[in-house]
Amino acid sequence: MDFPTIDAYVGNTPLVRAQRLLPASSTNTLLLKLEGNNPAGSVKDRPALSMIERAEARADISPGDRLIEATSGNTGIALAMVAAIKGYPITLIMPDNSTDERKASMAAYGAELILVSKEEGMEGARDLALRMQAEGKGKVLDQFANSDNPEAHYRGTGPEIWQQTNGGITHFVSSMGTTGTIMGCSRFFKEQNPAVQIVGLQPEEGSAIPGIRRWPKAYQPSIYDDQRVDKIVSMSQARAEQTMRELARQEGIFCGVSSGGAVAAALELAESVENAVIVAIICDRGDRYLSSGLFSPSS
């Protein structure tokens, strides 16, 4: 028998209905795309596999090359997994305030970790990755500027949701980090039905939500096109964290803070529409946030 390897199980994640978060009187349907079911535990498995496989196909990388990437966590874990599958050494650069679970997961896959300070943040991590590439220390995949990132969602996530909803989706809600998910899905949905509304989530000023950012203009991902987003919601850290806990306790869906924010935005949206089919991305699993104390009984 010919058995598949683990990369064959990236994608085709479940889409489930929220049971209790919407009021009983609501005419809307809230559906949650469980991207934590990917092999390395997040939506970033899709672009990680896409960026490496398509770079191989173009001969941009070849066996033995060292890969380099700046990451806040999920992309790094996903890239570390794909690099392990395909035999590439990889160096990941991340802010030192990322959770211990994220750091440990990358190391478990064999990645070399370089930490920058919280103050340097993702901007500093991205700058260092490019300096290392210029010094000949490896090749940067650059999730922020790499069209293979949104392409993974245009070819995978979007079509899956369209099929799972029988083309009935009316609103799509996604947190925005690299913006690959929302860019790829928006492109696909608008091609099928221009009336589908695309809602992006960013943290409000002063809020820190892992995995999503309000980028300074100089660092805004070049894959981002604001014409593909119909509405941007600014979310408070407290509301995102509270909704994250409610998802676990009321729906049995254990996820991270950015997913809580996306669902909070979807619930706000549901207050102003009727008979809508709203799909929100649950981008990862909650177990990589346990050391933060966000799920403690007193929270």
UniProtKB/TrEMBL annotation:
InterPro entries associated with the record: Cys_synth, Cys_Synth/Cystath_Beta-Synth, CysM, P-phosphate_BS, TrpB-like_PALP, TrpB-like_PALP_sf
Classification via Pfam families: PALP (PF00291)
DNA-binding among keywords: no
Gene3D superfamilies (alphabetical): 3.40.50.1100
This protein's UniProt keywords: Amino-acid biosynthesis, Cysteine biosynthesis, Pyridoxal phosphate, Transferase
Keyword Membrane in annotation: no
The reaction(s) this protein catalyses: O-acetyl-L-serine + hydrogen sulfide = L-cysteine + acetate
Protein's recorded name: Cysteine synthase
Name of encoding gene: cysM
